[in-house]
Design a protein that fits this description.
By secondary structure, this protein is α+β, with helices and mostly antiparallel strands. It contains 20 helices and 24 strands. The longest helix has 21 residues. It is found in: Cell junction; Cell projection.
Amino acid sequence: MVSSSEYGSHSWELLVTVDHQHEEVQKEFLLRVTGDLHIGGVMLKLVEQIKIPQDWSDYALWWEQKKCWLLKTHWTLDKCGVQADAKLIFTTQHKMLRLRLPNMKTVRLKVSFSSVVFKAVSDICKILNIRRSEELSLLKQSEDALKKKKKKDKNSKEPVTEDILNLCNSPVSSGLSGSPGLYSKTMTPIYDPISGTPASSTITWFSDSPLTEQNCSILAFSHPSCSPETLAEMYQPRTLADKAKLNAGWLDSSRSLMEQGVLEDDQLLLRFKYYTFFDLNPKYDAVRINQIYEQARWAILLEEIDCTEEEMLIFAALQAYHVSKLSLSSEAQDFTCESEVDEVEAALSNLEVTLEGGNTSNILEDITDIPKLADNLRLVRPRKLSLKAIKPYWFVFKDTSVSYFKNKESAQGEPIEKLNLKGCEVVPDVNVAAKKFGIKLLIPVADGMNEVYLRCENENQYARWMAACVLASKGKTMADSSYHPEVHKILSFLKMKNWTMTPQAVSDPESIDMKPECFVSLRYTKKYKSKQLAARILEAHQNVSQMPLVEAKLRFIQAWQSLPEFGLSYYIVRFKGSKKDDVLGVSYNRLIRIDIATGDPITTWRFSNMKQWNVNWEIRQVAIEFDQNVSIAFTCLSADCKIIHEYIGGYIFLSTRSKDQNETLDEDLFHKLTGGQE
């Protein structure tokens, strides 16, 4: 027995388990400590007792019962609340993790399990050469997807061997700082802006990333698509409720992986969580552009987002005959011609996908006279018990409102009706082959949404009016500098859809080495035979056949952004005072309440009108206040309410980014907006 006077009456024994690889050395150690001993002192005592000469710098104490790291080494045991019953584990902070990327490839790398997820994702993106890491996050696979995978593995006769790209020797993985991941405009381009290949040998010296040129090509190029059988075995959401399950697994950005139950060598999904792709630049973003393209491609193939048959064929043409073929032959192509590069750079500058990320509007343009549109359009009002009433009227679009009159002559008087489009939902209703150019407007009214259709005569008229409606829904007028690029974007998408059957294009679809079923969702493989699909995709391909590789990917992303459901993440919620469940769609600029049975939007609330939001953590209820004394409250049924809270705060944080901020992120602001006070 040791006398208490020797150690002092306040000392006690603390059990610490050491997570090391030396089998001949014990793993459990009893330390005699006092409450005023700091965490750093505990670790020092422990290392002295272990007597294994190795680098312990990456080790830290993990408190098993409380599920938290003891990282503040100057704090005492008393301040941390550690007592004799505590189970502490002395383990590495950086551990191996398998990440499934948007292109469905799996990489294995060392990640910090003690940093908050926001910081861990930033480090991962440095390794993978992806800028703007704040747009991505980590997602646990939904239970339905895991069940389908287990069933597939059970039915498969051969053992499934996954092709994993190992990046475990990276500087960031070892806990060192890597390349900044953000490049200034004066830095040397590291990718060819046309083909997306690494520019000469710059990748080896420009970046601290462990990506060799071979690894870079795995991440920056699209690879042959999977077989129709593999596609059929993958989980596909059928209903809005199924889509809501996909978004339930987002990890909390303000807590570490270990705190959220992630274990070493677990598999997580790395995905673009926020659909505001800021400052896309082909010179630096070959990997980022390809991964966004791949996330869009899989969302369309697995029907996570709805699109028309015409749009599906365009997507198939871009990915099938174009991106896949160019990716396979890109190494053989020589894109060094200087004049060609300049022309394509000019074309790509129009393609930069900025959504509402930066303050792009020019103040001088905004204070000039606001332009207006005036033209003959047809108005369609759906009626429940009769056919739709379609009538021609003289329409005038000014500011953010549309007024219509009996004819042009009566436009000086009072309109028949004036529709304020601020906060409305704008949905394209287009079939280029059938010469149908419609705009569906869902305008918020006291008891829901007022549905109105406008029918245009041709592409040009449609593009001008559609662009005006889209801007008005966001509270912007046609004086805004984004109006003309929006018109251009709509016209270019319509041009891709506008193809005609030519005997030359479809003379021998079998001569192309590809399976058309790999490039469309299952719904269309069931509807058409293989030859019919190949012929139809070849028709659509005529309009995109001259595009370089990166432009084809950017066009694909742009077309994806044009879909009505783009950027919506769904959650099942119960609104305060309601007796039934609804679906809440969270987008980059608005929240939408959707009927869970019909899928119809009920109400839209814009972030621009939001005054404040908070969470009652006791009853897990999100409450939001908007302008004009509008307030809503709901509880989330399909996920933790923290996920929706973080989505709203995250989108508001991303809207504060600008290109002249010296490209640094205010991480503290992100955590203030998204962290919550549980």
